[in-house]
Every structure is written in structure tokens, then in C-alpha cells.
């Protein structure tokens, strides 16, 4: 990297699946292609949890939910927590204290108790969120605020194209046409003004959090016209009825079952167009940096908080089903001295890696442990020694609660469902996670796959021990794991040697 402390620009989208970036080539992203050509694309990047709040808290803290304390949507009436645990520090605070100018535009969604201005940032433009005082809990008068006062649908209403009707609930509109979805252009305009007004020689980090391509998939005609419905193919797993998977998965799929295959394809077209629209906004930021003479001194990051099933397994949006599509995120880094030139890195990367990356590249000693690790060696053309060979996920559900943990490597993926039976996939033979080996009679105690499950549990418990995740409750009616923590811990409660 250059001798001078680098600047940083972070562009984080919401709901953008990890293969909606180069080099996958599924959608049109000329500006991401431009960033990729100047840097590195991480094609195996993941969020820790398939929801905005825990994943964003991980991005800013470098910790998993079990340590930062944000497990689900902090803005809903039945949230488990409304913000970060006491004592959790964010990279933005370290960088502010080290003299960086910290600028924020757009979506935060990390805490309902405090905004980014309490965590080191100067606000350029806020999103829709509002922040409550410590100890606030919603009352019945907050129904409208927390989504319980949405317009109620007529139980006899006729379903229109791209709609899902549920008696007593508002209609769900999957897609449509809108010129300015989620007001993302407002956020980007504010960020551009911040770039244009940046004093010469001042080191900065700017975070721009847009709301798209979050559902409903609304985008202008200009971007919709870039795609041809006849060329839109549904995912290979679309026809998966999920008869061998948890019942909750099937219940969610049934909701989307109202849509015809053509409507699913139209929704996918709108989703692709929405991603291309976000790429267009991102390009405006690149142009602003270039016009200000800051592009080559600024490390630019394009990433997303979580993915979207986007018709995989017949599902949309994100949530408890533990499939790759909800966890696989964008991660492209370029400029600012990054050595890439279009290099593709296929190692397992986490949103938890960004906090230690920013601090190391800025020359700031954090003095605390992170769950993630610095990506700097990758950005300098190398590969860190001893890099992780598996990835872990943590979720307790989102509003509909259900404890779920997963671990996967190149060969196998194991999903622990405390609310139902577990899942095991052979990712080499079944990359789309269609055939659950545990439910197909291939798994038996003492067999070859049982050895795989035991090995996965050893890894899960090791990760839980390191990251203070209390998944080892031994009470008979709550401990649904097939193996207890003693497969990893010795009698004194310490890890086995």
C-alpha cells in the first residue's frame, strides 16, 4: 500500500446476493466491473446471519452476534436486543480517534438506541431509522411504527400479478416500476457532496448504505429495459419441494407458491435490474472520487449485508432457511494501492474481516480480539498463512425465532436446527443444497456420514467456545444437538489438546 494512510469508500447494498458481482457475469454491472478490473473480487464472501442488523453489526465490530449482541431486527416490537452489548467498540471509533474523518450516508440498522453519530461518524444523510433512548421498549401505541398497522387486505381480495394475498394481512407486492426506489439517489447525492467538499490531504472513511435491491423489487423502466424476460432462467433449485427439510422452510415456500413461474421470472428480472441500478449509483461515486483526484488514493469497497434467495428453492428475500443464497454476499475491493487487476480470490471471507482490515491498513492498533481477520495480504497480492478453511453462521431467527447454526467447508455443509431436524449436504455433488443426506437414509449412527457430523460438531463447538456462543445447554428438552460439547471440551471445560 501507499505510504500515506489510505482513504476508504464503502458502498453497502441491502439484499444483494453474492453472485450479483463480477466475475459471475449474471447481471450487468459496468461499474463493479470497473472496480474489479482495478482490484480483487472475493467470490466466497459470507455474512454471519441472514439479516441486516446482525450482519451490519458484524461488519462494524468484527465480531459475530454471540459477542456483539445483535441477533435480529432491532426495530421490531419483539426484538431480542435493541443494540450492541456494553463494551463493544466499532472500527469507526478507532479510526475517528486516530484522526480519520468519518462520514456516513444512508442505512445504519445496527442499533435502535443510537445512531452512527454516536459511533464516530459525521452524518451526511440519514436513512428512515430513528433512535430511542436507553431502555426503550415499544408499547401498543407503537404498532404503526413497528409494522403492525399496515393496511389490512380484504380477505376476499383478488390477487393481482406479482402479488401475494393473505387474509388479514396487507398485500405483498413482489415487483413493479418506480423511479426512485428506497430514496437511494438521495443518499448518494449527499455522499457526492461530501466527496466534493473534502479538504485536501485529510484522511477519510466514507460509508454509503443504500436500501436496494431490497424487496419489493421496484426499479425504473430504464433499467428494466436492460433485461429480456425470455433470457431469465430460474435457479436449478427452484423446483425443490423441500420435503426433506425443516417444515418451516416449506411453510415459507408455500407463501411464494401463489406466484406462477412467469411471475417468479419477472421478479428475478426486476431484481437483476435493481442490482444494475445500484451499480449505476455506485458509478456516480467512482466518478466523483475521480473528479476530485481521490480515486487512486481511496480503497473502494462494494459489499452487501446479506443475500437474497432470488427464487432459489422457490424462496425470496432472506431468513431462517440456511441456504447459501441468503448468506453469500458481494465483496469487491479496488483502487487505493490494491494489487489486483481483476484477480479472483475464492477463499472463505466474512463480513467480520472488514473491521480488522480497515484498522490494519490505516496503521491503527486495536488492542482487542476480532472474530474476523485482516484481508490486507489478499489486497497486496498474497495470501495469509493459515487462512480459514471453513465458514460458520449464527442465527436465532428473525422475529420468528429458531436457533440455527451452520458450518461448511468445500465438501460438506452441516446445518443444526434446534427447532427441527438437521441438514447435511455434499456440496461437491449437490452445490445447490437440494438433497439433505440426513433425511434420505444415508445417515446412521456409526456410519461414514456420522463421522462427518461428529467432525462438524467439533468445529461448531470450537467456534462457539472461541466466540462465546452458548449453544451447549444440556437440558433434555432444549439440547437437540446429536453430540454434546464434551466431544470438544475436556472435563475441566477447556478445549481438548
Give an overview of the whole structure.
By secondary structure, this protein is α/β, with parallel strands linked by helices. 25% of the residues lie in helices and 17% in strands. The chain is built from twelve helices and 18 strands. The chain has helices spanning 30-37, 52-61, 65-68, 91-97, 184-196, 221-224, 247-256, 261-291, 324-327, 354-361, 376-379, 448-466; strands at 7-13, 39-42, 45-46, 101-106, 122-126, 163-164, 172-173, 175-177, 204-209, 217-219, 298-304, 331-334, 343-345, 349-350, 391-398, 400-408, 412-417, 423-426. An eight-stranded mixed sheet has the order 5-4-9-1-11-12-2-13, sandwiched between helices. The protein has a four-stranded antiparallel sheet with strand order 15-16-17-18, covered by helices on one side. Strand 16 (400-408) and strand 17 (412-417) form a beta hairpin. The two termini are 39 Å apart.
